[in-house]
């Protein structure tokens, strides 16, 4: 579904009326966490989570952590629920065989960087990864899932919108109360400018400022071009603003709900509309893996990656984790 606009506005009638349901949602989550003893799988597990429903930038951060661990010689595997896919898992993702309808878009992106497992039962998925030779696991989402022990838990927040109106689903975007979530986290990753004072909420935990940086070659091809931009992500307007910032002229914007399953006729219509406008159709890497295979080549893609403000701060979190997971006590 599309993110309700009132989630990111000051509390009004809709959020007030829905607040009792949000209170029940939060209570159920707290009871589930309190009543579960997390289990370990014998290798370090890094969780990349957030406190809001919808996009905050978890998958790019997960990909950046995978790259950082691989650079240290770790045989890292990715683990995700497979949101939007039909497979329950545990299942090893095969990008040559599986589609987004099978395993979800995030799994396909992660599988392009490391062996990836889809599992609605995160503990079972982690056990399969460990048995398959993983030296560490990067889990995309799952912060509110208490079954699997997390050796390092990062909360990712979008600095532009923060935690919205501060209310729980469905009255607002929060999956749990901010204070409760941050109390279980080891660090807070803030993507983009911190416009809502998020760093002050970290309670002494490390804060890792970062930004999403467009692929320079793709950005150069789009600069100065008329584009029809479409995206089915948590905040499509963020993608549209990124295009404008790199110099593209966005002549039409077409937002879809997060994880939108694109139909061939729908994408063909977008391509035809672009042609009529004399524009180039462009979307995100996350959307691209959901496009019909036969139409992907006709749509430009703008990949992004995470650029850390302080690589040393990230290393300070990862090094103890690797020392703990190494049999000889030496980080790679």
From TrEMBL:
The EC number(s) this enzyme carries: 2.7.1.130
Tree of life domain: Bacteria
InterPro entries, A to Z: LpxK, P-loop_NTPase
Annotated binding of ATP, by residue: 52-59
CC annotations in GO: plasma membrane
The entry's keywords: ATP-binding, Kinase, Lipid A biosynthesis, Lipid biosynthesis, Lipid metabolism, Nucleotide-binding, Transferase
Gene Ontology biological process: lipid A biosynthetic process; lipopolysaccharide core region biosynthetic process
Top-level enzyme category: transferase
Pfam families given in the database record: LpxK
Recorded catalytic activity of this chain's protein: a lipid A disaccharide + ATP = a lipid IVA + ADP + H(+)
Any one GO molecular-function label of the UniProt entry: lipid-A 4'-kinase activity
This protein's pathway: Glycolipid biosynthesis; lipid IV(A) biosynthesis; lipid IV(A) from (3R)-3-hydroxytetradecanoyl-[acyl-carrier-protein] and UDP-N-acetyl-alpha-D-glucosamine: step 6/6
Record keyword Nucleotide-binding present: yes
PANTHER family, sorted: TETRAACYLDISACCHARIDE 4'-KINASE (PTHR42724), TETRAACYLDISACCHARIDE 4'-KINASE, MITOCHONDRIAL-RELATED (PTHR42724:SF1)
HAMAP family: LpxK (MF_00409)
Role of this protein: Transfers the gamma-phosphate of ATP to the 4'-position of a tetraacyldisaccharide 1-phosphate intermediate (termed DS-1-P) to form tetraacyldisaccharide 1,4'-bis-phosphate (lipid IVA).
Family recorded in the similarity comment: Belongs to the LpxK family.
Protein name in the entry: Tetraacyldisaccharide 4'-kinase
Source species of the chain: Azospirillum lipoferum
Originating gene: lpxK
